[in-house]
Amino acid sequence: MTATYNFDTVLERRGTGSIKWELYGPDVLPLWVADMDFPSPEPILNALKDRVEHGVFGYAFDDPALRQVLVERMARLYNWSIEPGDILFLPNLVSALAASSRAYAAEGEGVLMNTPVYPPFLASPKTCDRAQIVAPLAMTQDGQVIRYELDLDAMEAAITPSTRVFMLCNPHNPVGRAWSRAELEQIAAFCLRHKLLIVSDDIHCDLLLDEVKHIPIASLSPEVAAQTITLMAPSKTFNIPSLGLGFAIAQDAGLRGRFQKVTDYVVPHPGPMGFVGALAAYTQCQSWLDSLLPYLRANRDFLVEYTQQHFPNVSVTRPEATYLSWMDFRSLNLPGSPYKFLLEHAKVAFNDGAAFGEAGTGFVRVNLGCPRSTLHEALERVREAVSSV
Ligand SMILES: Cc1ncc(COP(=O)(O)O)c(C=O)c1O
To answer: 121 and 68 in one domain?
Structure first.
């Protein structure tokens, strides 16, 4: 029997300590920070309830069963053979991004990344006096639909002799690309040639909206795996970021050791709810995910069509992965920035594109992880606000 899930129900999230819903005033509709307005799948809720029923919340150990599930998952989904001991459990991935610059580059050495990119990438080298080296992705346009491509020339031009790390976002937040095998091979060749370690943030790997595959870059070859640390989590996929469970996969013991040296005693171990939620997510929630993806895809298409119908001078991505769209408002010359203008005049909170690097100025990031009616209302508000300029 296939279960059906209703993603149209609007849930009240104010009053639950939600940063998305409570940072701005009650009159603001929030489509910014990347969590979804959907309840988590029922098997996760049941597993958490059972754990709460037990009533004792002492320190959590490791979870060998979860390690085994992850080993099998990597083999099944990506034909990627890892060992249980290659996995390091983490309470979140932002701390892992920050730790990576400390672990793999010395003070003053460079950390390269493609922009626009998720802001904690940009912050990572800066938190520890490493050099932030950015290479913009190339933007192409077909009508009002924009798409981003790798720009290896820009990467060659940006890299310095003391650059040590390339931080890859795959699938890429905010531009929604799931990098193809050919593109990943180009990135890997570039990193091998320049002796760069690769930190690959694959947190959005399950959120594939089109017939695209996710390919962890470390799965390309043992040579690439030997210089890559991959970051993943069930948190975006199953909407459980605050349960606090992510993980790093590093097949090279030296890379694992360097990472642990900076995280031990600094980054806490995950708690019991993280382990319980993750195990339920990865073992019992595939049918929920199979229903979620078409809903997100339809939201994406709704946004593209709405843009084409009502905003002739605005462009938008058609993300092949993630639940994040990226809109280019530059040609409207909205006073201040599109983010500020839309917050003030439309009462809709998007993410400010400028936070994703210079390449994001004049853009906003739109979170599609909400009921269609919420997305529709936000767009109606935007339409009304921009019609007055
Ligand atoms: C690419 C990427 N990495 C990491 C995170 C955050 O991960 P965590 O909540 O585990 O810190 C996000 C959240 O939006 C993200 O988009």
So the answer is: yes
Pocket flag, ligand 1, residue 201 (CB < 6 Å): yes
Q: Are residues 123 and 113 in the same domain?
A: yes
Please check whether residue 386 is in contact with residue 334, taking contact to mean a CB–CB distance below 8 angstroms.
Answer: yes
Q: What are phi and psi of 234, to 5 degrees?
A: -85, 5
Domain-ending residue, one of 244, 265, 284: 284
Distance in Å, CA 121 to ligand 1 centroid: 10
Q: From ligand 1's centre to the CA of 202, what distance in Å? A: 9
CA of 312 to the centre of ligand 1 (A): 32
Q: Which of 10, 17, 26 is nearest to 347 (CA)?
A: 26
Cβ contacts of 71 within 8 Å, gap of 6 or more:
82, 83, 84, 87
pTM value > 0.90: yes
Determine the distance separating the centroid of ligand 1 and the alpha carbon of 385, expressed in angstroms. Answer: 31
Q: Please work out whether the CB of residue 233 comes within 6 Å of at least one atom of ligand 1.
A: yes
- Determine the structural domain holding residue 347 and report its residue range: 19-42+286-387
Q: In testing the pocket of ligand 1, which one of 35, 203, 267, 323 has its CB within 8 Å of the most ligand atoms?
A: 203
Residue 220 shares a structural domain with residue 309: no
Atom of ligand 1 nearest to the CA of 233: 10
pLDDT mean values, one per 10 residues, the chain (389 residues): 80 96 97 97 98 95 96 98 98 98 98 98 97 98 98 98 98 98 98 98 98 97 98 98 98 98 96 98 98 98 98 98 98 96 98 97 98 98 93
